[in-house]
Amino acid sequence: MTWPHQVGVLPRQADCFQDRATAQQLERAAYGGDTIVHAQVLTGFGGVGKSQLAAHHARTLWQAGKLDLLVWVTAATRDAVVTGYAQAAVEILGADPTDLETAAHAFLAWLEPKPGTTRRWLVVLDDLADPADLRNLWPPDSTHGRTLITTRRRDAALTGNSRQLIPVGLFTADEATAYFTAALAAHDRHEPPDQLAGLADDLGFLPLALSQAAAYLLDVGLDCATYRHRLTDRASTLTDVLPDPSGLPDDQATNVAATWSLSIECADQLPPAGLARPLLQLAAMLDPNGIPAAVLTSPPALNHLAGHHNAAPGQTQPEEITDAEATQALRALNRLSLIDHNPSSPHHTVRVHQLLQRAVRDPLPTDQHGRLARTAADALMAAWPEIERDTSLAQALRANTEVLTLHADGALYQPDAHLVLFRTGQSLGEAGQTTAAFHYFLQLANDTQHHLGPDHPNALTARRNLAYWRGEAGDAAGAAAALEHVLADVERVLGPDHPDTLIARHDLAGFRGDVGDVAGAAAALEQLVADQTRVLGPDHPHTLYARHDLAGFRGQAGDVAGAAAALEQLVADQTRVLGPDDPHTLIARHDLAGFRGDAGDVVGAAAAFEQLVADRERVLGPDHPDTLYARHSLAKVRGKSGDVAGAAAAFEQLVADQTRVLGSDHPHTLIARHNLASFRGDAGDVAGAAAAFEQLVADRERVLGPDHPGTLATRHSLASFRGKAGDVAGAAAAFEQLLADRERVLGPDHPGTLATRHSLADLKGDAGDAGGAAAAFEQLLADQKRVLGPDHPDTLTTRHSLANWRRAAGDASVHQPPDR
After folding, report:
1. How far apart are CA 578 and CA 125, in angstroms?
2. What strands, in cross-sheet order, belong to the sheet with 5-7?
3. Are 437 and 428 in contact, with CB atoms under 8 Å apart?
4. Phi, psi at 350, each rounded to 5°
5. Long-range contacts made by residues 92-95, C-beta under 8 angstroms, separation at least 24?
6. Phi, psi at residue 719, to the nearest 5°?
7. Tens digits of residue pLDDT in 692-725
8. Do 321 and 329 form a contact (C-beta atoms < 8 A)?
9. Per-residue pLDDT reduced to its tens digit, 423-463
10. Residues 281, 364: contact at Cβ < 8 Å?
């Protein structure tokens, strides 16, 4: 025999092979620090190109003359390993080919390092299926030889001592696009780079999938855009958009859809036997980028596993599955590289490749697919906390619901709309993403009507939520108009005393108050409380919530002391019924503190807000929107108490935290910026305040629109500080335009419109027209009495201003603006 010598046949190098970073890592990993690495284990998901990388590495060493012996063994079974070793022994040692075990061990003995031995060798064990197959068959550690293994397994038995595990991942975006470009160009096909990049993303950057997709494109004659459309068509299976067996590229034996079947079977045989496959099926319905552990170990998930688990001999029902067994099944899937299981990441514990998910879903019968979708929805609901203290968990649950909705094919609407659909939209709103919640419920309202009909209770509930979040996003008038129609339909379908009818009445009253009809809102809520007490009882949560809003609108109508007294009683009742830490109890405490401050007890209000901030941080967490809002109110009341600089400093920190948690364009962040600018101006930096408000107006117009009440409020403050900075004429012109816009958007009787008239009247007096100011205030006072009532704080302020300007108009020698 002559040297160098090769045993076995290396796979041919794939067309357009990508010299990936892993190839260089494999070369460098031959030595790990001060410890020589004798065995390297390439492990990873099926289809990532482990064999190609191993073959490339072996071929590179061979062609560079760095090997005397190269042995390539297909290691799918123990018998295959023994046979490969025996063949090497036959060719090198002349061993007896009829006694495979003896020959195999003779070959391993030959590999043992001996004095004077200089033969350089590399043994490649490709596609090792089970680490146990190498028991007593590991090549020895040698200074002249190395072992390279490819496997989907990640068992601890493959590492340790002088063995090094090297994970093989997916293509990078650049590698995937480069591969597509080269593969198509070889056949004189060229596609737009953005389409190739998009297709690579659609296929999850899996090398095997990319090669088969390229072959399909070429054989069928499709352009990239058309293929991407077929790929996302739910009527097609993964097999439908891949080459048939005769058209597979690079000597591949199976298409992507069949690549993982053996691994799934092996994982299902690992203890606890029979759980890996149904757990993978459940995971296949959810977000490939991360599934919280709490979902896959929830009671609905465990019941699903129990239903697919074989009963023990003599039992008619399978045993209950524990969360520990479910976790063990996840570890089994992880050992076969079918999932990435990371227990240290509680919100993205399990990641599954999107094509594997599709390969698992495609064969499911329609009825089983539907049941699985509903089970996944049940599992999400079971994992969803009532109080979203952890924003990352809430985001993960919403992302999983979004993916589930895409895969469910209508199952979440049969026999009715699953609760998780509503919980997702509510979660968006509770996180402060009011505009996103509005758009979510817009889609849900369309979907529920499509699947269930316009008069189905779920469709009506979706419409009510749509109207509610429309109002919360800033369009209170549109919300009120929409809720009038919803209320009529709900009352017609469900009756006047149905809980959903009462909720719709509650929402409608609230938004009527928000658009300026405070007295009407209070009257409607008063009647609602009476009806809810009769139908639901005085301690029902909905009755308590209506009492809360009734107190609030009474306060806005001018009865601040009455509102504080009502909220004090409400806090006591909610503490008794709901508990002191219930979010609604905390909200009532928030409003109680606010009205105490409005009634003149600023010190008491500040103390109450300080305690509320501490309680909300404990119950909801420091980054919850309600906690941030309590900090907002605390800073504001501190400013009202005279600590203007302290308020500005508190708002500066709050804006930073809200930007980090909610984003720079979130409505709450914009409101905090508004107050920060205002208190900076009150602290003496009038020009800086005006500049800050000018920037804020631009941002609010971009984010909320020019007619949003928040945008109009910021324009009001901007005009006010321009006047304080000395530009009285410019401020007056700005208020004139603002008044026209507020009358158009909010109506002539809205408190914001009345406030603009008040500021405009003041500026007339400041400009020297005391008589004009007095006349304007006289008309304003009459309107405020009619709209707000004679005892409302704004009405009282106008009476005071009117008296001042009347005095000023009667004394022509007065040149200084009157004391207001």
Report:
1. 64
2. 5-7, 69-74, 121-128, 145-151, 39-43, 163-167
3. yes
4. -120, 125
5. 92/1, 92/5, 92/7
6. -65, -40
7. 999 999 999 998 889 888 899 999 999 999 999 9
8. no
9. 999 999 988 788 899 999 999 999 999 999 999 999 999 99
10. yes
Q: Which of 803, 805, 799, 757 is nearest to 558 (CA)?
A: 799
Q: What is the 3-state secondary structure (H, E, C) of 254-306?
A: CCHHHHCHHHHHHHHHCCCCCCHHHHHHHHCCCCCCCECHHHHCCHHHHHHHH
What are the structure tokens assigned to 386, written together? 């009532």
> Across the chain, what does the average pLDDT equal?
92
Cα–Cα nearest to 293, from 331, 337, 327, 246: 327
* Euclidean distance between CA atoms 37 and 53, whole angstroms: 18
pLDDT digits (tens, 9 = 90+) for 618-638: 999 899 889 999 999 999 999
Q: Which residue has the tokens 């596993």?
A: 305
Give the length of the chain: 820
- For residue 439, what are the β-bridge partners? none
Residue 556 vs residue 812, higher pLDDT: 556
Fold of 5-167: Rossmann fold (3.40.50)
Hey, what amino acid is at 478?
Answer: G
**Can you tell me which residue has the tokens 């495979």?**
100
Per domain, the residue ranges of the chain are 5-167, 173-259, 260-311+318-392, 754-820
pLDDT band at 322 (very low <50, low <70, confident <90, very high): very high
The structure tokens 């020698």 sit at 813
CA distances from 536 to 23, 128, 565, 570, 674 (A): 69, 66, 24, 17, 41
The SS3 of residue 428 is helix
Beta bridge partners of 125: 73, 149
Please report the DSSP string for 405-417 in residue order.
Answer: HHHSTTGGGSSS-
* Among the ranges given (247-256, 408-417, 545-554), the one the predictor scored with the smallest mean pLDDT: 247-256
348 token code pair = 């993205």
- The label of the residue with tokens 């080459």 reads 243
CB 608 within 8 A of CB 593: yes
| Token pair for 468 | 């509610």
- Beta carbons of 138 and 147 less than 8 angstroms apart: yes
Q: Which residue matches tokens 């006010």?
A: 720
Six-digit token pair at 461? 């509930």
